[in-house]
Design goal:
Shape: globular
Number of helices: 10
Structural class: alpha+beta
Helix content: 25-40%
Distance between the termini: 34 Å
Length: 403
Amino acid sequence: MKSIIEHPENQHKPVKIWSELGQVESTAIQQLKNMASLPFVFKHVAAMPDVHLGIGATVGSVVATKGAVIPAAVGVDIGCGMMALRLNVNPEVILESTNQIRIAIESVVPVGRDKNKKVSKTASQWQGWARWKTLHATQGHRRGESDLKSTAMAQLGSLGGGNHFIELCQDTQKNIWIVLHSGSRNIGKSLAESHIAQAKYEMKMLSVNLPDPDLAYYVESSEGYQRYMRDLIWAQDYAAQNRVEMMARIFKVVNEIVEKKTGQNVTTTLEVNCHHNYASLENHYGENVLITRKGAVRAHKGDYGIIPGSMGTRSYIVEGLGNPESFMSCSHGAGRRMSRTEAKKRFTLKDLADQTAGVNCRKDAGVLDEIPGAYKDIDEVMENQKDLVRVVAQLKQFMCIKG
């Protein structure tokens, strides 16, 4: 840990930050202080080394609460996270087939706003659909419940846009990895936004004064709390299954190409699938609390996690050390050091090409806001959390598909 913000004068909880204060934007600092002022926050607010401004709550914050939940402290892409597979395969076969693999992946995994033209059997048979009718926030949706469900089914197994990606990487031991980053697509966003709006309405009706309206919350005894938790868990499961569905297609593509070239099948030696926008009931400091992680990965002792840098830098597979002060959490990436708008103003397409040299990826204006220079230094982020995780593998991508 690098910094602590104390509030002895008004009894607000402390904020513990795994970064130098000067490295965190003032607006993000204020958001952390706002969070720490809420009466149901337990012990302190933990901010990871990739912390930066978010909506209501900072991205890279971990909050423990007793008796309430703040939907904005999870975020709108509920269950967003990462999945990685370490492959048992001759790396040279993959390296010489990179472009072929990329084209094949793009043919089976929709990216950006695209969705599947035909719902796969595994997607349609996902057991989570049996709970669809229990989702409160889907009822009376402006597009209609059936439209919302059909879109959710068609998007199961799709990447999305923004900073979501599919990568082929190689670690320092020459092992090949498939790494992907995605979330709960439109359905997760719809559920989250519905609950944030409802929580704001309830705060207004109860005349609750908040330092930021986006920190609207549900108290545990309310129907809203129960409905949100039910919707939240469903969306988290959907997001995890979305990654599983995509990874199965990607692995099949890689295996078919390798088998055609060598006559051998690809196997896996490690699999990691972790959320970094989610909530869970956990025990910390001897008490049962609700932990919300917005841009943070669970790092209980022995947990595996994935911490990516950017589309031109290193990523890390890590093992949690179970540090209680971070509520056993770590960063979810390098974290942005500037907005997307600022990145587009500051950098050129030549900068993008230079910073992604050696990576088979898009190098057009559509991904300029994802340029590596828009992100914090991943090595500095990792240095700042040596007390949170142990590095298992250091990865460098050679192919990246962006939404």
